[in-house]
Amino acid sequence: MPISILHCKISHTNNHAYLKIGGGGGYTASTLKKSNHKNILSESFGKIAIIIPCYNEEKTIAQVIDEVLSYLPNAYIYVFDNNSSDNSYAIVESKILDNLENKLDSNNKKIEAINSNIYHSANTAFKNNDFKDQDVLNTQNTTYYNITLYKVSTQGKGAVIREAFALVDADYYVMIDADTEHDASILPYALELFKTQQLDMLNIARDGDSSVYRRGHGFGNKLFSKSTQMLFGTKINDMLSGYRIFSRPFVKSFPAHSNGFEIETELTIYALEQRFRTDEIKAPYKLRPEGSFSKLSTFKDGFKISLMILNLLFSERPLLVFGVLSILCCLLSLILGVPIFLEFLETSKVARFPTLFVCVGLMVIAVVLCIAGLLAYLITKSIKESRYLVYLQTPRFSTQDSAISIRNKE
Do 151 and 17 meet the contact criterion of CB atoms below 8 Å apart? Predict the structure, then answer.
């Protein structure tokens, strides 16, 4: 059986620097059940990328990595440090180097054992005149962790996700926060559900009481979620969850315009407007450990999320927006104009010319808004079709071998 070789790579570019460990890994059986989340996905499942945005999370980042790897040891961890001023970057870097050192020591010991096995097996075979290949080498694959650390200079979670989606190539993408509030034990079950239903986005909603949320955050989340449900018709109840799973076509066709925490809003509405296959499950939501603080600003980020919803409403549903505005202007024009018209029928005179001019102006604006809405709708429809073509042209699996392996597995 082949021996896994570890390699360490440190690279620097103009936009980011990263330290990477890579190589092959062992294969493990998987019987995924919701009641037993400790069952581990095998590598034949496909490449799983765990995207972890990180900003000043020195208290929790190592724990999040350990928790994810305890349930998905074959996953590829991608930590994106977003200009952290604490020791977050150094902690992940140290974890990578420690992992590399441990695995190199383990490989050296295995190589020594293999050489010893070869020597003794060869001596025995030559003495017995019965030399066989399978007697010479009988080892098992080495399982190790794949961790990559990037440094993203543009501030904001949206900028991190945009960079991650552009750089990472995988079959399944898991987005999880670096604050230990999300339950990693649900991942095997969630990924199996994602694969079985052939979803494009699985939203993992937060299931916790009001004491887990910061003051005002629970109310704001419900308000935004209900508003989005009314305006866009989505069935997702936790629109601002940072715990999600995406397909490769979704990731490679997502435009990613936002820079901050409004990225979750953009992801949700994009999936809805493109009519992708989506679903939602619940997972326990935990308190942050002592000394760890949320980076979400209640009013500042809440205002940005509100603007993002309005912006997406104009860009994704222009016929609705311009149609409503056009109807309002038309109704206002009629309300003001009908009395003038009735008065004209009775007296054959127009006594209120300023009001008449306002009525005519409002009716002209109503017509213009209606035409603008139709034109914007046609443009939006064309953009959606172009996005969907990109979606269709993107293979669901990063390599042909992964697709064949998964089809054979099924």
Answer: yes
Q: Model pTM?
A: 0.75
Contacts of 385 (CB under 8 A, 6+ apart): none
Distance (Å, whole) CA 165 – CA 225: 24
Q: Which two tokens stand for residue 202?
A: 């699985």
Pairing of strands 76-81, 48-54: parallel
Residues written for the chain: 410
DSSP 3-state assignment of 75? coil
Q: How far is CA 271 from CA 200, 231, 251, 276, 277, in A?
A: 8, 14, 11, 5, 8
230: which DSSP letter? H
* Phi-psi sector, 145: left (phi>0), alpha (psi -120 to 50), beta: beta
- Give the chain's count of helices (H) and strands (E): 12, 9
Three-class DSSP category at 309: helix
Which amino acid does the sequence have at 178? A
- Alpha-carbon gap, residue 279 to 245, rounded angstroms: 10
Secondary structure (3-state) at 97:
helix
Whole-number Å distance between alpha carbons of 104 and 363: 77
Closest CA to 89 of 50, 58, 49: 58
143 Cβ contact list (under 8 Å, min separation 6)? 25, 26, 28, 73, 74
The token duo for 69 is 């790897």
E strand residue ranges, 31-75: 48-54
Q: How far apart are CA 250 and CA 184, in angstroms?
A: 22
Q: According to the 3-state scheme, what is the secondary structure of 135-177?
A: HHCCCCCCCCCEEEEEECCCCCHHHHHHHHHHHCCCCEEEECC
3-state secondary structure of 278: strand
Say if CB 302 and CB 265 are below 8 A apart: no
Phi, psi of 41 (to 5 degrees): -70, 140
Give tens-digit pLDDT for 12-49.
333 443 343 333 333 222 333 443 444 445 556 889 99
CA atoms within 13 A on the CB side of 100: 18
Tens-digit pLDDT profile for residues 173-207: 999 999 888 999 999 999 999 999 999 999 999 88
Closest of 167, 223, 139 to residue 18, by C-alpha: 167
Q: Are strands 201-207 and 244-247 parallel, antiparallel or unpaired?
A: antiparallel
In Å, how far are 76, 163, 165 from 13, measured between CA atoms? 21, 13, 17
